[in-house]
Task: structure prediction
Amino acid sequence: MTVLHTFAPMAAELPPNVVLGSIASDLADNHVAAPKGKDQAKLATIAADAREAGIKLEIVVVEGNPGHESALRDLATATQQRTGGTVVVLSDDFIGTSSDNVSRVKLEWAEDVAKYRGNHPEEAAQAFVGRLAQPEGLSWGAITGVLLVLTILVIAGLALVKARRSPEEDMALFGPAAD
Result:
């Protein structure tokens, strides 16, 4: 049975001194959960603006930095399972996210600009939302399609040039055929 225990999935590790139930109830009024004494007004405005832009956002702020950054992602996932939408968890220097409608790639791209804001959750949340609100970049499928069409046009053009060339022009280019 040791083998089964070795490969069992690890339980989510939430940051210390965090109670999931109190976070969920704190999010209910303004979509922001922050430690007592923290001003939630600016974060609530950011969450409201994100919602107006079509991003169902919940913002959670935790004090300090957890031992592992992954604890913030675990907290975001656990919170998101209760609230739905997109959850961003901010600590002094780290960020964790989870979403049911934004891809992991886009979440991590948005995380990159929000990290290491040094206990300025408003700046981090605004940077995160700013990245999420940006339109998707170039589609690799569209780029591939355009290159494929261009390749086909070049091949067709070369075939047309070759078909229109007379045998005399071929002789001039390559010389008489050797017997």
In short: The chain has eight helices and four strands. The two ends are 81 Å apart (CA to CA).
